[in-house]
Known about the structure:
The protein is α/β, with parallel strands linked by helices. It has 9 helices and 5 strands.
Amino acid sequence: MMSSPEAADRPLTLVLVGPMAAGKTSIGRKVARLLEVPFVDTDKRIVAAHGPIPQIFAEHGEPRFREWEREAVAAAVNEGGVVSLGGGAVTDAGTRALLAQHPVVFLTVSEEAVARRIRGAGRPLLDGEDDPVARWRAIFAERRGWYDEVADLTVDTSRRPMRALAEEIAAWRKEQS
């Protein structure tokens, strides 16, 4: 990848992508601890800089949000560490191009597991839906091809313990170095 002296000082990079409720943040934190590198959630960075995501969509629109998201992703992967992306980050061609330069793990999850995980969890894209799982399914179907496109490894988070998943992902990433 990078051969500059600065790159050698930077921690390794690993990017996690996947749909809502796949466990990107929870597993990402554990993987970062195992690899002894920083953890970054790009959605949290965007919120800190620009305000709540639903408000950004309402006031600035999705194209502006995706632009800020692409900038947040670029900054995070440049810093190194485990980087968790929002579920829709892969919809942006510029973000997908950035991801081609880094190891990416696609965390997938079954509909049944999602049904358990999203109950009462404030998820803006699912709020107010009569059938949030059906809405999740539709969103996942739209994005599935992009997740597959950017992924170097796909891991199903539906049934295995998070610790085991994190250990598997951390071991895979160490093998990539």
